[in-house]
Amino acid sequence: MAPLPSIFVFFLVLFTSSNLFAPSHTLLLQSEPSDEAFTSVLISQNGLDFLKDVLVTKAISSMIPLILPRIEKSVKIPFVGNIEMVLSNVTIYEIGAPTSYIRPGDTGVTIITSETTCNLSMNWYYSYSTWLFPVDVTDKGRASVQVHGMEVGLTIALENNGGILKLSLLECGCHVHDISINLDGGASWLYQGMIDAFEDQISSAVENAITKKLQEGMVKLNSIIQDLPKEIPVDDNASVNVTFVDDPLLTNSSIGFGINGLFITRENVPPVRYSTWGFQLPVFCQDPAKMLGISLDEAVFKSAAGLYFDTEYMQWIVDKVPDQSLLNTAGWRFIIPQLYKKYPNHDMDMNITLSAPPDIRISEDNIGATVYADLVIDVLEEEDVIPVACISLVIRGSGSVKIVQNNLAGSVKLNDFSMSLKWSNIGTLRLYLIQPVIWTAIQTVLLPYANSHLAKGFPLPIIHGFTLQNAEIILTASRITVCSDVSYADEENLRYPYP
């Protein structure tokens, strides 16, 4: 059935990083140093309550109409004979759950609805024969049933099974406290008392039908979870590793998940090893009412930088600038006279390649990045590209981040840079004369290119149908924390997001 997947699949993949909502709570995730949870999520009680409301609403909409088995009863009464009573087309067509709650505990997550009401419709049939009359006496009509004070509950255990969340149903049940039956049609006033004798059987049928639906839903849910991928694609080159690290952590008011969270090459998920090494990833949200707290360790960003560096993705040819004269040796005749003398009026380009992965540092006040690059000045002669000099650059910038839908996006600006001559085929270069040209290339080419990609961001692992709302971003030492509420747009199928 559909109701259960809504909440627990949401638990499964919702976010990255380790987080807490108050200094008095610390989330401890157990892992080997090579299998750390660089991303995790803690869902607060407000978040659990929101998810519970979504769950209950979807449970009701997916469960009704619910057809119950045919109910028959035969009674032999002295001087009257055999009385056959049949209830058919017994259908639950309305369920109301005014009170419900969700509580995590030591053994699992418990969800209970109480004071639940349930309305049913059915057909009734009545037949008896007696030695006093040679013919059968029959009657039939419609009936309505109102169930009051019904309680439905289940407890589910959550555990890490090779990097995938496994759900096990520990307890599941439904109990009907009160029921009333009203007959219509035929001589209903005559048979009302006898039909009331069906109360226990109707109550039992309702309890069994709802319990069976919950059990079927758990089987379906666990199957869905087992089929979920262990990575979320970012683009053609990279994915985010969303394998779980250790079991979920449950307190009396929250659920925490540890996820690897590092960038990996597409379809290159490393095997998950069970963890034995302990480490602590404390994250705090200033507003404890927020439903979610998402924290990203700077190792996540460094893994992205390292991956793109290893795939040789970080290389640019600068052949267009606002002042195109700077890409002709004539524009350099006063900056590097020997270049113009050797290659007069030749077109040029600048080949920029990172020499090391960018170094990203997150502090309480700033996100800083240091980029190491080699800039090769090329002269274009007919079909030949002639490298004439190489300048080593150390570019220092600062960045900012924001939430765009369910993506963590950002931008970067240039603070300063330094450079040194690595090699030259045209003699010694006066770097202070070249610096304005390099500054222009960085500001007009590299930064706009980088910001165009950063503006798109990368996806937080959030189930399709849920959206972050009123998100706040907090910088701490080596971490970016997103504290947010969520909204939900009803979807027929909840699934992993794909770009």
Your description of this structure?
- Keywords: Glycoprotein, Signal.
- Residues 1-26 form the signal peptide.
- This is BPI/LBP family protein.
- Residues 43-268 form the Lipid-binding serum glycoprotein N-terminal domain.
- Residues 286-484 form the Lipid-binding serum glycoprotein C-terminal domain.
- With 499 residues, this protein is an alpha+beta fold.
- It has a domain at 314-454: Bactericidal permeability-increasing protein, domain 2 (Super Roll), CATH 3.15.20.10.
- 22% of the residues lie in helices and 46% in strands.
- The chain is built from 7 helices and 26 strands.
- The chain has helices spanning 3-13, 45-63, 188-195, 199-226, 298-310, 337-342, 431-454, and strands at 28-30, 39-43, 66-67, 71-77, 81-96, 99-104, 109-130, 133-161, 164-175, 178-184, 231-233, 238-241, 249-250, 255-259, 263-265, 278-280, 292-297, 315-318, 347-354, 359-362, 367-381, 384-404, 407-424, 458-459, 466-476, 479-488.
- Strands 3, 4, 5, 6, 7, 8, 9 and 10 form an 8-stranded antiparallel beta sheet that branches. Strands 18, 19, 20, 21, 22, 23 and 24 form a 7-stranded antiparallel beta sheet that branches.
- β11 (231-233) and β12 (238-241) form a beta hairpin.
- The radius of gyration is 34 Å and the shape is rod-shaped.
- It starts with a helix and ends in an 11-residue tail after the last strand.
